[in-house]
Specification:
The protein has helices at about 1-5, 25-40, 55-65, 85-95, 100, 105-120, 140-145, 165-170, 180-185, 195-210, 220-230, 235-250, 255-265, 285-300, 320-330; strands at about 45-50, 70-75, 125-130, 150, 155, 160-165, 185-190. The chain is an alpha/beta fold and about 325 residues long. The longest helix has 18 residues, at about 235-250.
């Protein structure tokens, strides 16, 4: 409704995950780059955790888009509330193993092993991505662990990504989950956005939707959005979308702090103080280097990922700093180290 009045091509603050609007802070860039790299380099098991609404599913969809080629076969499980038999059947169906899905468990596992070995012989990567993984039962997590037993001396035959809320980390810390936790090669965590990132996030999405350089939010309104959203991207979207609708209905050209406060009351948001995410030093060069690594990773996958150049105040981790050489080898045709 308000989109036409602002000359927008798309709705800027939808709450559904959309890689087109992926906003890469240092931590989001790190997660996207790291997951692409780890999947393509056959590192086995990875986790991506964060509070609800911090962008995990958006990252996963961007990664899926980047690695979506004939050389990478992916099974994506968006609803993990299945029993072990249903889970294995769902995975087999996702990989196109229709006959095996109807067999007994022993036959299913045998067919699945042959499928993985054939994929390895043909230089294809097999990946299993499980969203909302914090909802997995311990029995099902054990089934996932057993899948990681399929490997060669070069690495795992199946790459597994467990993405979920912070409860997943708590589950993996439990003593009876020690074997699974030991299998985790890389862990990525998404935190709420800091105050300045909230401003950049709003401006970025406005621009991607076709808006001009001036966003229709007053300065104190931006501060209010940061406060009431607590830096959670999904809440930022909900507040901004409702605030723009209210401003449009009232015939005002911009969103004021009063409008944001009214929207926050309607959404039952009390908000909290928002601090800048912990900084590890570094500067623009660190951010651009990590960006280049992500581009190189997507080139390896033969896919596309819209990664925007933006300044980063965070220094890349050892993974980002060391991945360049390995990815260069990958671009030269070497699949494994």
């Amino acid at each position: 409704m308000y989109e036409d009045s602002y000359g927008l091509r798309y709705k800027p603050f939808g709450i559904d995950p959309d890689p087109q609007f992926l906003f890469l802070t240092g931590q989001h860039r790190e997660a996207a780059t790291g997951l692409i790299y780890a999947i393509l380099k056959h590192r086995g098991l990875m986790t991506l955790t964060g509070e609800a609404g911090t962008g995990k599913t958006t990252i996963l969809r961007a990664v899926l888009k980047a690695i979506g080629t004939s050389s990478v076969q992916v099974a994506y499980v968006p609803v993990p509330t299945l029993n072990p038999a249903e889970f294995l059947e769902f995975v087999l169906l996702q990989f196109g193993l229709l006959n095996a899905a109807r067999a007994n468990k022993a036959e299913r596992l045998l067919v699945f092993e042959r499928f993985l070995l054939k994929a390895n012989e043909e230089n294809r990567t097999v990946a299993l991505i499980i969203d909302e993984a914090h909802k997995l039962s311990k029995e099902l997590l054990e089934e996932v662990r057993l899948l990681t037993n399929y490997n060669t001396r070069h690495g795992g035959l199946i790459q597994v990504v467990l993405a979920g809320q912070t409860e997943l980390d708590e589950v993996l810390r439990q003593s009876d989950m020690a074997q699974l936790k030991q299998r985790v090669a890389y862990r990525f965590t998404l935190r709420p956005l800091g105050r300045e990132d909230v401003r950049e996030y709003i401006a970025y999405r406005w621009s991607r939707a076709g808006g001009d350089s001036r966003i229709p939010f007053e300065e104190d309104a931006l501060d209010a959005v940061a406060r009431y959203s607590s830096g959670i991207p999904r809440l930022i979207n909900a507040i901004c979308d409702n605030a723009l609708m209210m401003a449009f209905a009232e015939g005002t050209p911009s969103v004021s702090a009063a409008i944001v406060q009214s929207v926050a009351r309607d959404l039952d948001l009390t908000g909290s103080s928002v601090a800048a995410p912990p900084s590890e030093g570094g500067g623009v060069e660190d951010g651009l280097e990590t960006l280049e690594l992500a581009v190189m990773a997507t080139e390896m996958a033969g896919g596309e990922l819209a990664l925007q150049r933006r300044q980063s105040r965070e220094k890349g981790s050892w993974l980002s700093r060391s991945a360049r050489k390995l990815l260069m080898l990958g671009r030269s045709g070497e699949r494994h180290e």
